[in-house]
Amino acid sequence: MQSIRCKVENIEPLTKAVSKVVLVPETEMTFAAGQYLRVLMGEGDARPFSIANSPRKDNLLDLHIGAGPDNNYASEVLQVMLDKGEVTVDGGHGEAYLREKEIMPMILLAGGTGFSYTLSILQRRLEIKSKEPIFLYWGTQQVQDIYAYDYLMALQKQHTNFRFIPVVEKTNGVWQGKTGLVHKAVMSDFVSIEPYQVYVAGRFEMAGVAREEFHTQGLLLENLYGDAYQFI
Predict the structure, then answer these.
(1) Run of H or E including 216
(2) End-to-end CA distance of the chain
(3) What angle do CA 162, 207, 173 make, to 5 degrees?
(4) CA dist., res. 230 & res. 177, Å (int)
């Protein structure tokens, strides 16, 4: 697969630990909504990040990089972007992309910065004319981690078939929405998941538990997608 040099056009903080990076590739990168790219850091060192936008005419690539103090893997990539103003990438990678020819009712399940994967799929799915419902469940540790709350609420108003459900693990007593584990919120809202395609991004532990418990609630495993499932 061809490597592509990219200019770092912009880096902006989304939270204290998450930054949005906009890359301008020298040549077009072909990818499907839900795929990822790899930042090539050196020989044998290619680090994957979900592309946080669907394919667009200007070819720009958005990344949401969670580079907290306990994540040197991502922090080193962000530092290279800051220092050099460019990176080399390849992509798109991954088999958990949006199945555009098999439009069904959809559940998008994201934990933390796994939201960037679901955002790409959501953007493309909303471009396709269909009344099939779309549910996005985004689980974060704290309310302030829901950095796209206003954007998603606006989308919900624009698209009658889309519903956004944020889920917070740790609350300060003010939060009036759903709390606890994000996959449990899904299970509490659906009697059966059998009619749905489900796209999952987050920690491997969450993805594994979601697969097992959703299956007991009717999910057909051939309708479950997530890059984690290549490894667990």
Answers:
(1) helix 204-216
(2) 25
(3) 65
(4) 33
Contact partners, residue 160, CB within 8 Å, separation at least 6? none
Q: Report in angstroms the alpha-carbon separations of 117 from 26, 62, 188.
A: 23, 11, 23
The rounded mean pLDDT for the chain is: 95
Q: What's the Rg (C-alpha) of the chain?
A: 17
pTM for the whole structure: 0.95
User: What confidence tens digit (pLDDT) does each residue in 88-112 have?
Assistant: 999 999 999 999 999 999 999 999 9
* Sheet with 61-66, edge to edge strand ranges: 45-50, 36-42, 86-93, 4-13, 18-25, 61-66
Selection from 44, 42, 39, 118 nearest residue 74 by Cα: 39
d(CA 25, CA 64): 17
Task: Supply the DSSP symbol for 93.
Answer: E
